[in-house]
Amino acid sequence: MRLVSTTGKSRATLADAVLHPFAADGSLYLPEATPVIPRAFFNNMSEMTIEEISYVVANTLLGEDIASSKLKSIVESSLTGAIPIHRLDDTTAIAELYHSPTLAYKDISTYFMCRAINELRGIPRHPNFIVATTGNTGASIANACHATRSGNAIILYPYGTLSRAQQSQFTTLGSNVYPVEVAGSIDDCKTIIKQLFADPELCAQYHLVSANTINILRIVPQVFYFFYLWSRLGAESKTPLDIAVPSGNMSNLLAGALAKKMGLPIGRLIAGCNATGIALPSLLHGDTGAASATLRRTIASAMDSGRPTNLPRLAALYGGNTDLMRSDISAYIVTDDDIATTILSTGDYAIDPHTAVGLAALRSYGSANGVALATAHPAKSLDVMTTVTGRAVELPLQLTRFMSRPKPSIHIAPTLAAIKRYVLDTLT
């Protein structure tokens, strides 16, 4: 796969883009040309398994970089659970992407990345992954590294924003997982990582690799389930399938847009954004300079990012043409009150706050055949769910196992100097 920066000024191989996710001008990479899957592939997709579908998609994108036999094995071992589809009514479904080790959709992409990265020429074996997280990403990469022993994981997370359940999934593993609580916001954590990767000598010396979606290998596996959902809900329907995506950093939305560019005949992509995520809705309404001036905390906290990492990639995928973006994507801002109302509207079927953002957006659009991505188990937002519903949420075994352990962690200032000191002290 050849990649180009969002500004069009730099080009890179996949391995180079993984090691150096930021181009010289600070922009990110995306595929230079999106390969199109032959139309004949779609004829029998409804009879294929998710592993078979995902392998074809992966081979189309990465076949030049990873041997097909290796890729097949990586795909099969990375699809860590089934994707049940729950029907709310005749027009609306929920795709449960959280039947996986840490109960979040990101497990597919992090397990895939940890296994695939060691098959790329020019990548150091057993790298040191570093990630900024509001909960789910940190848990996923920590557990993927811990399970596959493919490297170390340094997890940066903002002070005072994660629930006990969220923290426990990466602060209690020990071994090759290093949790770091930063006295700042998630955007501070992301800024530190961007500054860190601006020091190529340090990154090379300590074999640092980003585990956030600035790493393009994190995006590729998220394309898989858009194809799978169409095979189950769209292939034999006379009505195009619309897919609603809870959108914080917008990696899932970017993956859906890539799927459309590859020829997947879905209807609209519907982005649900919480009260912090005004950037995309503003852009689609013509305000190209809009951004969230103040980072507001919401009850969909994993999406609390005022500067979505993948929005520049999404815009570049459409050549900066907002009219083209609007032809594929609708975006809605969902308030905390809307989230609570949506959680209560599904009765005994529990959805977490982030899934509720996607479902609320789907309903605002009024889809005749729509599915909302359920990105995490409701128990991962235990405090919010209890407050909104007034009922206890049963804790899955995965969470109770983590929460029964002590929580070791260190605390640092939100500065590049502080994380550099930590990296030097920890990895030497």
- List low-confidence stretches: none
- Helix content estimate: 40-55%
**First CA to last CA: what distance?**
34 Å
Strand content: 5-15%
Radius of gyration: 20 Å
Sequence of strands across the biggest β-sheet: 4-5-13-10-11-12
Shape, principal axes of CA atoms: globular
Describe the fold and architecture.
With 428 residues, the chain is of the alpha/beta class. It has helices at residues 14-19, 50-62, 68-78, 106-116, 136-148, 164-171, 186-196, 200-205, 216-219, 224-233, 251-261, 279-284, 311-317, 322-328, 336-345, 353-365, 382-389, 397-403, 416-426; strands spanning 2-5, 11-13, 29-31, 85-87, 92-96, 128-132, 152-158, 177-182, 208-210, 242-246, 269-273, 329-333, 370-374, 410-412. A six-stranded mixed beta sheet has the order 4-5-13-10-11-12. A five-stranded parallel beta sheet has the order 9-6-7-8-14. Helix 4 (106-116) packs parallel to helix 5 (136-148), helix 6 (164-171) crosses helix 18 and helix 11 (251-261) packs parallel to helix 13. It is globular.
Chain-wise SSE layout:
Blueprint: E1 2-5, E2 11-13, H1 14-19, E3 29-31, H2 50-62, H3 68-78, E4 85-87, E5 92-96, H4 106-116, E6 128-132, H5 136-148, E7 152-158, H6 164-171, E8 177-182, H7 186-196, H8 200-205, E9 208-210, H9 216-219, H10 224-233, E10 242-246, H11 251-261, E11 269-273, H12 279-284, H13 311-317, H14 322-328, E12 329-333, H15 336-345, H16 353-365, E13 370-374, H17 382-389, H18 397-403, E14 410-412, H19 416-426
Parallel strand pairs: 5-13, 6-7, 6-9, 7-8, 8-14, 10-11, 10-13, 11-12
Antiparallel strand pairs: 1-2, 1-3, 4-5
Helix pairs in contact: 2-3, 2-10, 3-4, 4-5, 5-6, 6-18, 11-13, 15-16
